[in-house]
Amino acid sequence: MADVHNRPLKTMRNTLYFGDNLNVMREMQSGSYHICYLDPPFNSGRNYNIFLAGSKAQRKAFDDIWRWDDAARHNQAAVLHYDGHHPELVEIMDNVSHCLTGFDNILKGGSKGEAESMRAYLAFMAPRLAEIWRLLTPNGSVYLHCDAHASHYLKCMLDVIFGSANFQNEIIWYYKNASRGKRRLAKAHDVILWYSKSPRDYTFNRDEILVPFESGMTEWRYAKGGQSGKAMPKGKTPDDVLVMPSLNAMSKERLGYPTQKPLALLEWIIKAATKPGDIVFDPFCGCGTALDAAHGLKRNWVGIDLTVLALEPMERRLRERHNLQPKVDYRIEGYPTTREDAILLAEQNPHDFANWAVTRLGLSPTPNSNDGGFDGSGKVVLWENHHLAEATRMSLPVIAEVKSGRSLNPNQVRAFRTAMQDTDAAIGIFITLHPVTRGMRNLSEAAGTFEHNGKHYPRLQFWQITDTYFEEGLIPVNLPWQIDERPKAERHYGGEQTYLTT
Ligand SMILES: C[S@@+](CC[C@H](N)C(=O)[O-])C[C@H]1O[C@@H](n2cnc3c(N)ncnc32)[C@H](O)[C@@H]1O
User: Fold this and answer.
1) Atom 24 (ligand 1): residue with closest C-alpha?
2) Whose alpha carbon is nearest atom 12 of ligand 1?
3) How many helices, marked H, and strands, marked E, lie in the chain?
4) At a CB cut-off of 8 Å and minimum separation 6, what does 449 contact?
5) N or C, where is the chain less crowded by C-beta within 10 Å?
6) Mean of pLDDT over the chain
7) Ligand 1 — pocket residues by CB below 6 A?
């Protein structure tokens, strides 16, 4: 068996995958994981438009709006015309295809509005839930995090895939802090559907999640009543309603990832459903809450996410909370950690490549990057030296353009100079995979220089992605630079910033 890049599969402990989880899961070994927690987009119709307004990667990662398009047809075909890649899925895919047909009938063909998006959403979920069933160990469990928009359809789908006898609980996560309208009740809960793969052989560590007895009755019974003299239990089995606040704008653990779930919620699930050493799998891992919780509880973990924007905060949280270094303490697949990886990503997905290149520098991907504009923007801080006080710093707007192809020409520099003028950028960074031409360099000189500490630096700089681009916190530029802080609401870890200096 081979991974998504046709390399032989190694032991899959503590690994982050970057890519579409259906492709990645298809190449994973059956029976690998003790628990799968998944928090897919919900078909809530919401646009989490607070992170990267309008950029392509943002749309992919955070637009929870579904269409019956080629991607939906492809998802449906993965079920209706299953290629038998894993023989144990043939019958299940057949059953799921009847389920999808049933949903189509309910949704009456589903070509418009909500019906269309629900149909596309269910076609997306069907092959992925089937793969998750395959990947679980015989005593494994799935915890599917969803909400009232689609939970009823997803429960039917899980009944078909896992068997209704293996339904264990519908867990209500009551997060309380709902926003309130005037025309209906406030939405204040999510749904987590728990199914086991086998009806009896599954992990439920009741003792790990006991809650205190509420009335004095139990104490009385063990002290004076019928149970007198016996050891009193430490607590009782919790209800299937979990009361826990969601993350708000002020939460310390916020990483700026719009759909981030609270660590405590994931710790609760993982404690209940796994033992130390088990492997936790999250195929929609976002900024890595489940992986963080798993690591803290001494479980192993494997996560997948589609967007590089998720990998950046994930890397950060694993480093800062658990002192984990990528490639040393865990594997990363599909996310560029070498120049060759970057070239592969650029070939497969130029948009993700551009997003990766600018986020790597701590800049934010920008909308409409296709129209001759630029791919990233932010602020840099010029320091007298790295250790000077806050008051001496000067913050300058910077934009970046990314070109992955070999065909580089002066017109691209002209367009970028125009973008610098239009945005009043003090500095422009032109990032390439391949060397720029002499004509481009000549043109860049016309953008002029800026002065800092008595030295002149070019305003328009070319940075080629070489091996140094992958060194932690270093980029190949001879400037005492530091990326400015993002707005507070987007940050979790205060203080430390990335030095952009050699
Ligand atoms: C609701 S968020 C998960 C948030 C996560 N539980 C956390 O606490 O950070 C859903 C994630 O699924 C990812 N995603 C969407 N479609 C995907 C796909 N086909 N393959 C892998 N990841 C996908 C998105 O990029 C997004 O990060």
Assistant:
1) 61
2) 284
3) 14, 18
4) 456, 457, 458, 459
5) N
6) 81
7) 20-21, 39-41, 61, 257, 259-261, 284, 286-287, 289, 304-307, 310
Joined together, the tokens standing for residue 279 give 């492997």
Q: Assess contact for 432 and 462: CB atoms under 8 A.
A: yes
Model confidence at 178, pLDDT cuts 50, 70, 90, reads low
Task: Report whether 364 contacts 377 (CB < 8 A).
Answer: yes
Residue 366 has pLDDT above 80, yes or no: no
Of 236, 232, 260, 239, which is closest to residue 248 (Cα–Cα)?
A: 260
- Domains of the chain in start order, with CATH, are 15-64+143-335 (3.40.50.150), 357-500 (3.40.1350)
The model's confidence at residue 289, banded by pLDDT at 50, 70 and 90, is very high
Residue 14 corresponds to which tokens in the numbers above? 């503590």
Tell whether the model's pLDDT for residue 190 goes beyond 90: yes
Indicate which atom in ligand 1 lies nearest the CA of residue 304.
21
Distance CA 76, CA 78 (A): 5
CA distance 287 to 348: 23
Q: Is the pLDDT of residue 488 over 60?
A: no
| pLDDT of amino acid 336 | 78
The pLDDT assigned to 381 comes to 60
Residues in the chain: 502
CA quadruple 323, 35, 267, 148: dihedral sign? positive
- The predicted-structure confidence for 95-111, as pLDDT tens digits, reads as follows 999 999 999 999 986 66
Report the amino acid identity of residue 191. V
What is the rounded distance in angstroms from the CA atom of residue 260 to the CA atom of residue 266? 11
Model pLDDT, residue 77: 94
- Hey, what amino acid is at 223? A
Closest approach atom of ligand 1 to CA 61 = 25
Q: Which atom of ligand 1 is nearest to the CA of 20?
A: 20
The lowest-confidence range among 268-277, 333-342, 383-392 is 383-392
Give every CB contact of residue 6 below 8 A, 6+ residues apart in sequence: none
| 61-97 per-position pLDDT tens digit | 545 568 888 888 999 999 999 999 999 999 999 999 9
Average pLDDT over residues 485-495: 29
CB-neighbour burial class of residue 27 (10 A; exposed 0-12, middle 13-18, buried 19+) = middle
Pick from 284, 291, 311 the residue to mutate for probing ligand 1's pocket: most ligand atoms within 8 Å of its CB.
284
What is the atom index within ligand 1 of the atom nearest the CA of 40? Answer: 10
Q: Ligand 1 test: best mutation among 285, 321, 351, most atoms within 8 Å of CB?
A: 285
